Amino acid sequence: MFGKSIVGIIAEYNPFHNGHLYHM
Asked: What's the CA gap between 9 and 4, in Å, rounded?
């Protein structure tokens, strides 16, 4: 769960919107 949370936060902060896919 922690990993997913970190990935989501990083994806949101990432300059690319591609991270949004990971958030899903």
From this structure: 9
